[in-house]
């Protein structure tokens, strides 16, 4: 009776040649490859060379009995999962308990029925294969989980780097705002307190208002356009704010206490930094469009 759909190997261990022949006869049509050993040490060597799928093991043998042979098989990581079925003429309950305690999966008493041997052998082969498949699947899933965990750790590491970069950018932005405020706004506030002319005070107020808008632009949701605060220096930003108010070079010169030629130089630099290559483009018009 062929009861296997895939190749299998059965190791028969018995010191009685007749017992080996009897089992070979029973299993000749099973579809399994049959290996034999006449004692425990020979069986252990055979398992090391060619691990079988299942072992039929006699209990009473010279040199080493079946119980000790089975215990040694179970202590070896390479052979501990191979199912062992004991065959013995000993019928006592104590012997059966010894067999299971040694690591056996079943105990067949002699004389045995051919059908009983085949059914029990087929059952334990099936269980062994299912167990191997489950172990393989669990190993694959464990590997997948480890890979997933590794990816999560990589993502977390990337997020930490990103958050660190954001914090650094926030610090840089805060420092830039503070620097620009000290350079652009505070001097104008001091000038207002010292200025007696009402018209000039109004101009200074407008300069402060425009400068404040530029400083707070990065924090305003939806504020688009050119980020002048990142592109221009504080002095250039001050001049841009005055130009956007419609002030000419002479007026800007008076307000900033610098020469008209210096204002002209600043205008040229501002055009270059803002990449205004067309000379026909009016600077006031352009700046108004990006505000």
Q: What's the arrangement of secondary structure elements?
A:
Elements (H helix, E strand, L loop, with lengths): L8 E5 L3 H11 L5 E5 L2 H10 L4 E5 L7 H10 L8 E5 L4 H10 L3 E4 L4 H81 L3 H19 L11 H4 L2 H11 L4 H8 L3 H14 L9 H8 L1
Parallel strand pairs: 1-2, 1-3, 3-4, 4-5
Helix pairs in contact: 2-3, 5-6, 6-8, 9-10
Structure, briefly:
The protein is of the alpha/beta class and 291 residues long.
Question: Top keywords for this entry?
Answer:
Rossmann fold, 291 residues, rod-shaped, Arc Repressor Mutant, subunit A, alpha/beta, 5-stranded parallel sheet
Main beta sheet strand tally, sense and closure: 5 strands, parallel
Shape descriptor reads: rod-shaped
Helix content: 55-70%
Q: Tell me the span between the first and last alpha carbons.
A: 92 Å
The H-and-E topology, N to C, reads as EHEHEHEHEHHHHHHH
CATH topology of the largest domain: Rossmann fold
Mean pLDDT across all amino acids = 82
CATH superfamily of the largest domain: Response regulator
How large, in whole angstroms, is the Cα Rg? 46 Å
Runs with pLDDT <50, length 5+?
A: 220-225
What does this structure look like?
- With 291 residues, this protein is an alpha/beta fold.
- It has two domains: 9-141, Response regulator (Rossmann fold, 3-Layer(aba) Sandwich), CATH 3.40.50; 195-290, Orthogonal Bundle (Arc Repressor Mutant, subunit A), CATH 1.10.10.
- It has eleven helices and five strands; from the N terminus they run βαβαβαβαβααααααα.
- It has a five-stranded parallel beta sheet with strand order 2-1-3-4-5, sandwiched between helices.
- α5 runs antiparallel to α6 (198-216).
- The radius of gyration is 46 Å and the shape is rod-shaped.
- The model is unreliable at 220-225 (pLDDT under 50).
């Amino acid at each position: 009776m062929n009861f296997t759909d895939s190749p299998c190997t059965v190791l028969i261990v018995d010191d009685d040649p007749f017992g080996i022949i009897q089992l070979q006869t029973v299993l000749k049509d099973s579809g399994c490859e049959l290996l034999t050993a006449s004692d425990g040490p020979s069986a252990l060597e055979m398992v090391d060379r060619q691990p079988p799928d299942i072992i039929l093991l006699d209990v009473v043998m010279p040199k080493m009995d079946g119980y000790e042979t089975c215990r040694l098989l179970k202590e070896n990581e390479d052979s501990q999962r191979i199912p062992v079925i004991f065959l013995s003429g000993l019928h006592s309950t104590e012997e059966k308990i010894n067999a299971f305690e040694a690591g056996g999966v079943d105990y067949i008493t002699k004389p045995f029925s051919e059908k009983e041997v085949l059914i029990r052998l087929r059952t334990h082969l099936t269980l062994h294969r299912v167990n191997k498949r489950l172990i393989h699947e669990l190993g694959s899933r464990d590997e997948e989980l480890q890979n997933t965990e590794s990816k999560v750790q990589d993502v977390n590491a990337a997020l930490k780097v990103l958050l660190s970069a954001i914090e650094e950018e926030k610090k840089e932005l805060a420092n830039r705002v503070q620097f620009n405020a000290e350079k652009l706004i505070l001097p104008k506030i001091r000038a207002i307190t010292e200025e007696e002319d009402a018209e000039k005070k109004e101009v200074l107020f407008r300069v402060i208002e425009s400068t404040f808008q530029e400083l707070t632009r990065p924090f305003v949701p939806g504020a688009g356009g050119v980020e002048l605060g990142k592109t221009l220096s504080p002095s250039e930003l001050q001049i841009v704010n005055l130009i956007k108010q419609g002030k000419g070079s002479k007026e800007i010169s008076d307000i900033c206490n610098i020469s008209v030629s210096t204002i002209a130089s600043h205008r040229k630099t501002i055009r270059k930094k803002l990449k205004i290559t067309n000379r026909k483009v009016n600077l006031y018009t352009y700046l108004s469009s990006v505000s």
